[in-house]
Amino acid sequence: MQIRENQLPKIKGKTVVHQSMENLTSLKIGGVADLFVVPEDLEDLKLILSFCKRKKIPFFVIGNGSKLLVPDEGFKGVIIKLGDSFRKIENHKEEIKVGAGADLSTLINFTAQRGLSGLESLSGIPGTVGGAMVRNASAFGQSLSQRVLSVKVLNKGETYFVLSDKDMNFGYRTSTFLAHKDWVIIEVNLALSSGKKEDIFSRLREIRKRKILTQPISFPSAGCVFKNPSSYPAGYLIQQAGCLGLRMGDAQVSHQHANFIINKGKATAQDVLRLIEEVKKRVRDRSGISLEPELEII
Predict the structure, then answer these.
(1) Which domain covers residue 264, as residue numbers?
(2) CA 259 – CA 169 distance, rounded (Å)
(3) For a pLDDT cut of 90, what percent of the chain falls above it?
(4) In DSSP terms, which residues pair with 38 in a beta bridge?
(5) In the Cβ-directed half-sphere of 153, how many Cα atoms lie within 13 Å?
(6) Is 52:281 a contact under the CB 8 Å cutoff?
(7) Do residues 110 and 172 both lie within one domain?
(8) Are 70 and 298 in contact (CB under 8 A)?
(9) Residue 240 lies in a domain
């Protein structure tokens, strides 16, 4: 696909033709996207979606790329990352209005500073609010969906609509947004609870310490690769199947957390895919359980 700069709509934000995706994903893997766009505001975003619709070009919205595997051959279309005006956070008493482009960590710090509780267990998840919504981010028995009141969405037809919590079909690592790739989450409304700041920060420190001790944060990764089956945690099944340290090229199953695949240097998407298939096979052969990836592959 040939996208030339003189064809692009004039926006205030950033546009890059032929953008390597390596530095836009937490795995540090991925080929070149035809076009990378950071719309500065809603007007920019509408122009980009209109351009994609008119030219019949596929688009994909990324947050921090923390649950994403981009193929070595790249993406034939437009990659969109929401800009500054989509990162605002406001609160009115216990209700929070937050842009989909805001980092989840920024939101958690914002709420903790104001004595608002309900998101502490999500501390350390390196995604954006929009990405966390799509996959219904959860940890330690707490999920983002438990706090969602409504979500503002823009579709490819540049039409606004608002979804209530009941419209979003939240489940374990899933939501209605996975089935609607032409929707762009703009803004999320959350309901939190009042709490003591010292208790909230104590809980945050405890969770962050636990993650540092149990997760391989020294290497690029995409977090947990597989969903947990109802029977046993995926990490336990992977470890029992003898996969700790299993390696394909520079992609390796972490010794520290078996449900993490880390990039030891120059791993390719193909290395990761081969490793995923081998892990699935070994777990299935040993336990009869078929693991399902939660890593999104474009």
Answers:
(1) 216-291
(2) 26
(3) 79
(4) 14
(5) 22
(6) no
(7) yes
(8) yes
(9) yes
